[in-house]
Amino acid sequence: MGKEVKVLGAWPSPFVMRPRIALHLKSIEYDFIEETMQPKSELLLKSNPVHKKIPVLIHNDKPVCESLVIVQYVDEAFSSGPSILPSDPYDRAIQRFWAAYIDDKWFPNLQGVAKAQTDEARAAALEQTSEGLSLLEDAFVKCSKGKPFFSGDNIGYLDIALGCYLGWLRVSEKMNNVKLLTEDKTPNLLAWSERFSAADAVKDYMPETNKLMEFAKIIMARFKAAASN
């Protein structure tokens, strides 16, 4: 199976974590092809000519792009392992809604913390990130129905959608000397984050915080250089 399935990606990317976790949940072997992005490989440009971004899943020589699209594809293409998306149409719709919120609204606020050029802008981005986590705390309570994960007893679609950002969330906490997941404001998310990070399907792909922080410093230096030009 490893020859039939390939993932193009890079270790710091939260988006690349998503298909890797999904494939692990489905017990699918695959070849991981590390992309440096400097320059982008011919295989990447050929496989994702529209966005030219990672991750890309290649299954039987057919590319599938965009991380959450890939997760849904893996769920539908491979019958092995547990279902990643809920079977109930309403539950499935709710998880897709929150996954879209995370990518379209919440993560850009987290990125805004790193991109901020002033203390005021950084504080505002941290506040928006924290407010978003409060919304996701409520979503967890409703979606999990008292179970360990958003999807119930097992890691599923929304767990993957949010969990892939935990490494970057911890980097933001450490670099700004703040706590965004806390026992008083987001107790359920805090406990969930620990369970998710320790899960067999996740722990090998979750980047080590200090290593990711060093990478983040390089990215922030690029932001500053671009802003000054």
UniProtKB/TrEMBL annotation:
<comment type="similarity">
    <text>Belongs to the GST superfamily. Tau family.</text>
</comment>
<dbReference type="GO" id="GO:0006749">
    <property type="term" value="P:glutathione metabolic process"/>
</dbReference>
<comment type="function">
    <text>Is involved in the conjugation of reduced glutathione to a wide number of exogenous and endogenous hydrophobic electrophiles.</text>
</comment>
<dbReference type="InterPro" id="IPR036282">
    <property type="entry name" value="Glutathione-S-Trfase_C_sf"/>
</dbReference>
<keyword id="KW-0963">Cytoplasm</keyword>
<protein>
    <recommendedName>
        <fullName>Glutathione S-transferase</fullName>
        <ecNumber>2.5.1.18</ecNumber>
    </recommendedName>
</protein>
<dbReference type="InterPro" id="IPR040079">
    <property type="entry name" value="Glutathione_S-Trfase"/>
</dbReference>
<keyword id="KW-0216">Detoxification</keyword>
<dbReference type="InterPro" id="IPR004045">
    <property type="entry name" value="Glutathione_S-Trfase_N"/>
</dbReference>
<dbReference type="InterPro" id="IPR045074">
    <property type="entry name" value="GST_C_Tau"/>
</dbReference>
<feature type="domain" description="GST C-terminal">
    <location>
        <begin position="88"/>
        <end position="219"/>
    </location>
</feature>
<dbReference type="InterPro" id="IPR010987">
    <property type="entry name" value="Glutathione-S-Trfase_C-like"/>
</dbReference>
<dbReference type="GO" id="GO:0005829">
    <property type="term" value="C:cytosol"/>
</dbReference>
<dbReference type="InterPro" id="IPR045073">
    <property type="entry name" value="Omega/Tau-like"/>
</dbReference>
<dbReference type="Pfam" id="PF02798">
    <property type="entry name" value="GST_N"/>
</dbReference>
<dbReference type="Pfam" id="PF13410">
    <property type="entry name" value="GST_C_2"/>
</dbReference>
<feature type="domain" description="GST N-terminal">
    <location>
        <begin position="3"/>
        <end position="82"/>
    </location>
</feature>
<keyword id="KW-0808">Transferase</keyword>
<dbReference type="GO" id="GO:0009407">
    <property type="term" value="P:toxin catabolic process"/>
</dbReference>
<dbReference type="GO" id="GO:0004364">
    <property type="term" value="F:glutathione transferase activity"/>
</dbReference>
<dbReference type="InterPro" id="IPR036249">
    <property type="entry name" value="Thioredoxin-like_sf"/>
</dbReference>
